[in-house]
Amino acid sequence: MLDFSYPETISTERTNANLVVRKNVLAPGQTFLLRLTALNTVSGLFGYSEISFFVNGAPSSGTFDVTPSAGAYTRPLFSST
Fold first, then answer.
1. What is the pLDDT of residues 50-74, one digit of tens each?
2. Is the pTM of this model over 0.70?
């Protein structure tokens, strides 16, 4: 279980609409379950939603080619593979 205590593991306040997790907190090759719980403080009712996600590792090898190797930004059209 990860503790999302500010600022050790997240870059945003826990009350922020977006959750930004710090670099190297989520281990590559692991599956995580994120649960968001909401509480109605008037009625005491609550609900939650969960999502499971897998953290990929860093790229290990490959190539990147751009054709042509030179040209103006408007001509010719470049393609990448």
1. 999 999 988 788 888 877 777 766 6
2. no
